[in-house]
Amino acid sequence: MKLAAFRRRTEPPGVRHVGLVMGDGPDRWIHPFEPGTEMVPLLAADAARREAAADTAAQADGIRLRDLVLLPPVYPVAMRDFLTFEAHVDGMERGHGNPGPPEAWYEAPVFLFMAPHAVTGPYDDIPMPPDTARLDFELEIAAVICRDVRNATVEQAGSAIGGYCVMNDWSARDVQSREMTLKLGPSKGKDFATTIGPWIVTPDELDGCRDADGFLDLGMTVQVNGVTVGSDRSGHMGWSFEHLVAHASRASWVKAGEVLASGTCASGSLAESWGRNGTLDPPPLRIGDVVEMSIDRLGTIRNEIVVPAEDAAPPVPPARRRVRQET
Amino acid sequence: MKLAAFRRRTEPPGVRHVGLVMGDGPDRWIHPFEPGTEMVPLLAADAARREAAADTAAQADGIRLRDLVLLPPVYPVAMRDFLTFEAHVDGMERGHGNPGPPEAWYEAPVFLFMAPHAVTGPYDDIPMPPDTARLDFELEIAAVICRDVRNATVEQAGSAIGGYCVMNDWSARDVQSREMTLKLGPSKGKDFATTIGPWIVTPDELDGCRDADGFLDLGMTVQVNGVTVGSDRSGHMGWSFEHLVAHASRASWVKAGEVLASGTCASGSLAESWGRNGTLDPPPLRIGDVVEMSIDRLGTIRNEIVVPAEDAAPPVPPARRRVRQET
Description:
2 copies of one chain form a homodimer.
Chain A: E1 2-8, E2 17-22, E3 29-32, H1 39-44, H2 47-59, E4 63-64, E5 68-71, E6 79-82, H3 86-95, H4 103-107, E7 111-114, E8 119-120, E9 126-127, E10 135-136, E11 139-145, E12 149-150, H5 154-159, E13 161-168, E14 171-172, H6 173-180, E15 194-201, E16 219-224, E17 227-233, H7 241-248, E18 253-254, E19 259-261, H8 270-277, E20 290-295, E21 299-306
Parallel strand pairs in A: 6-19, 8-15, 9-21
Antiparallel strand pairs in A: 1-2, 1-5, 1-15, 2-3, 3-4, 6-7, 10-14, 11-13, 11-19, 12-18, 13-15, 16-17, 16-20, 20-21
Helix pairs in contact in A: 3-8
């Protein structure tokens, strides 16, 4: 089942409906669920109840994609971004002059918490963030959590995953590099936009797309201005999403409405090429560039970089240096 | 005004009230606000309306501290932890063999997003997390955001701060060190517990505690088992909280219900001593240890490390190594 959040073009910003995605390509329609239907509880409902609600929705009139605005399918209560693609870590480490992934990478799936309030809709314009000359994208696959878990086994973790979507973790590489010299974060290098969508695909639709170890194995590609610049498969992750949820839940809560992302796949960012090539080739994103990401079965997100509609706040002054006093 | 979240000892977990803190020391009482009062809207209300609600609460019966359980004053919609104390950064960097804070530290206040679902009440027990032999604390001061801001000036940022509290950012240093070799996060090193409280103190109560530059200047101390092991002043932050909010809001949302923390003050963690001394002296926290943190005007939080009541989930396996294939 494919579940989208949307508003009709005739409705003001702030309105939000949940709908069933039917059909394909230009013949795609969104059929609204009953008013008041919320995405995360719908994902958590048992399959029979969700199917019944979908049957009702399917029988009512649908809305053409061109007559609506797709919204972020969830507003996450928290976001975690992992680092699960070995070849991406390898490429980035070689760019820094290291021989490959450090041993710590293999031991357990590391992640960072991300800005949860920066999610954008799948086709939203992305305002060029301030302070960067190295805007980049990151092609990722993301899981949406539909029930709270803590100390979950891998099996319990699987039942907490309500569905999957495409994710673009937009990144300002120059800002990020400065921040990472402090060995934490990054923060402002990634907090301006994270695109998720175009909708959520429930796990039952992907049953035929798992490898022998049960890892989801879907083709992933990214294009800039219509030219393919990266591609990989989700089966190249070092851990399955069930592993990621179980790990995150170890002595900690993973809550309904969270989004957990795979991290960048191999060749899923410009920075990896920059590291490998030693030059800014392909060039950083510029205003007017269109980035399009597709994952098999999950769909396509597409965003244009645009001039910001608002001025950034003035930068804060540098740290107040002080003569250290004993207290 | 001091505002606490609590339940009566006779009430089951899950019940939550907001109350006005009155009196001092053993003669402290909590006076409940009207049922349904929520903390963040109360912080955002204009002063006259908040005062009127407090007058009503003060006239009704209070509850003695011993008859209630103090809860986390907010369940944050996001948490950010900064790194604003120059002397702490200096100590940590010297522990790693570096000459002092990198220049990037002075340029802008770096932060990371933290686990938002790990907050504990001010006197809650802290279960010893798995996988660590180096449990540590971090003495911090935190601001609670009461209204959404984006691209805020320093002045607008100030009006978004609803109040302040004490924070202990519990840290498993060995887990954190392994994670930080991947240059992001940390994640599991800090996601098991973050203590905030004992209540929120509104900015008007702290008007007399600002230095010439407008920085809050409050004494901070931490004790382990009754022995003072660290102390500093919040005036030693490199930026004011108004600066931190303005910076975080640059081309990004900072939302009502967020918590933004100062980062560890100088001598506010054991790790700083470990770095300076080259040995684990004082020793890492053990079961039965009690950590007590106090900040002038804000109050005291106090937590005991205890045996976990539940088993941790089994660790996930190491990464699946793969023969890399071109796709």
